[in-house]
From TrEMBL:
Presence of the UniProt keyword Secreted in the record: no
Domain OmpA-like: 204-318
Any one Gene Ontology molecular-function term assigned to this protein's record: porin activity
Superkingdom: Bacteria
Localization of this protein: Cell outer membrane
Record protein name field: OmpA family protein
Keyword tags: Cell outer membrane, Ion transport, Membrane, Porin, Transmembrane, Transmembrane beta strand, Transport
Pfam family, one: OmpA
Main localization of the protein described in the UniProt heading: membrane
Keyword Glycosyltransferase appears in the UniProt entry: no
UniProt xrefs under InterPro entries: Bact_OuterMem_StrucFunc (IPR050330), OMP/PagP_B-barrel (IPR011250), OMP_bac (IPR006664), OmpA-like (IPR006665), OmpA-like_sf (IPR036737)
GO annotation, cellular component aspect: cell outer membrane; pore complex
Length: 318
């Protein structure tokens, strides 16, 4: 019989396939059934109590019926002799019948094939230390189409020659339910992949210090705010970390006011930043100071517009 199987992977619902794997299957094929001299028999013989009772009962009944038919004028001695002879004769004849034996036998001695099919459902429990090997618990239902086997019935009396009562094909269906424990082995099962050793991730590189900083000012002011001092301090610290040959400080102003006034205002702002850098430990000779007034706005505006982002000093580390 050829069988096919399908395994269910339960890992998607959190049950690893290394623990248990349900499967179903089915098969179809051809099955031969061999009845090798399968027989059943029955024997019937006399039993002394039954035989004696049966013989006496029948004899008495027949004697009474026959003696009643004798003419009334029959002499008593003739009647008595007739009854005795009749009784002896009846007893002998009935004993020959009631002492008989009989036997009957039914025998099947045949081979027959038929189409068979089966359904299978089971659980496989992998044996981890032997890849591919699993213990199984399964249920099987197998059935065959009609099976025909020749059956013969015979009988005999007093050990005489047997008489055949009938000899014909007996047809029957076969259904079989079974639960089995077993093992199965799957060839070419891949071994579990070894654990992959990964190197620890390299530490993140330290951020590259910025080389350009913007310091903003209030309207028409050149003094440094607390936030402005923090930015200048950061620029001074990074200037000592990177290869800096010079520090450029450029002052700017918005377009509110005359160009001449804004030029002077941008200069004061640049000087204030340079002085704070020097206070933070930067050599004054490493600082170049320039003032551009309103000529290089960060945000283009019309004349006379107050733009906070244009009121600034740019620090560039070179």
């Amino acid at each position: 019989m050829a069988n096919v199987f399908y395994d269910f992977d339960l890992s998607s619902i959190g049950i690893p396939s290394s623990a248990v794997m349900p499967y179903v299957g089915g098969g179809i094929g051809y099955v031969w059934r061999d009845h090798d001299n399968v027989r059943g028999s029955i024997n019937v013989g006399p039993a002394s109590g039954v035989t004696g009772g049966l013989t006496n009962g029948l004899t008495n009944q027949l004697v009474n019926q026959l003696t009643a038919s004798l003419p009334p004028e029959t002499p008593a001695d003739v009647r008595a002799e007739f009854v005795q002879n009749l009784r002896n004769t009846l007893n002998n004849e009935l004993n020959s019948v009631t002492n008989s034996t009989a036997s009957a036998q039914i025998r099947s001695d045949d081979v027959n094939g038929s189409l068979a099919y089966q359904g299978i459902a089971g659980l496989a429990f992998p044996i981890r230390w032997v890849p591919g090997l699993a213990a199984t618990l399964e249920y099987r239902f197998m059935a065959t189409e009609g099976v025909k086997l020749r059956t013969t019935a015979t009988a005999r009396i007093n050990n005489g020659a047997p008489t055949t009562l009938y000899s014909r094909n007996t047809e029957f269906d076969n259904y079989n339910h079974s639960i089995m424990l077993g093992v199965r082995y799957a060839f070419n099962t891949p071994r579990p992949a070894p654990a992959v050793m990964t190197d620890a991730p390299a530490p993140a590189a330290a951020p590259v210090p910025a080389r350009t900083y913007l310091v903003f000012f209030d309207f028409d002011r050149a003094d440094l705010t607390d936030r402005a001092r923090q930015i200048i301090t950061e620029a001074a610290q990074n200037a000592n970390r990177v290869q800096t040959t010079r520090i450029e400080v450029a002052g700017h102003a918005d377009r509110a006011g005359s160009p001449q006034y804004n030029q002077r205002l941008s200069q004061r702002r640049a000087d204030a930043v340079a002085a704070e850098l020097t206070r933070q430990g930067i050599q004054r000779s490493a600082i170049t100071v320039q003032a551009f007034g309103e000529s290089r706005p960060l945000v283009a505006t019309a004349d006379g517009v107050r733009e906070p982002q244009n009121r600034r000093v740019e620090i560039v580390l070179r």
